[in-house]
Design brief:
Length: 105
């Protein structure tokens, strides 16, 4: 198998893996660093979907996912430290999960 095909299959497996949806109460109990890690993991999941979209020549979807991933990555520390962070991270996790579900169809 070609390396790009292996990479695409790995991305698809990552996209299809369910995202655990943490509750805002659970997120409040975590350290700021742990919350930041969750946001960065969501960003990586979006990057994986963007790579898969690129393999499928879906450039508009790829650009949207890359932009969203960069936005998550850029705001990870701020969100993790903010009082509203647990609520936002909960919503972001749910949104990425819905994107992954519809993307894998």
């Amino acid at each position: 198998m070609a390396p790009s095909t292996l990479f695409a299959e790995a991305c698809l497996r990552n996209v299809q893996r369910p995202i655990p949806l943490p509750s805002k109460d659970h997120l409040r109990s975590l350290t700021v660093h742990a919350r930041e890690t969750i946001v960065l993991d969501l960003s990586l999941k979006l990057e994986g979907m963007a790579s898969l979209a690129d393999e499928q020549n879906r450039q508009d979807l790829k650009l949207m996912l890359v932009d969203l991933s960069a936005s998550f990555r850029g705001s990870a520390a701020e969100l993790a430290n903010a009082s509203y962070g647990p609520f936002m991270i909960e919503r972001m996790s749910a949104s990425v999960g819905r994107i992954a579900q519809s993307f894998a169809i």
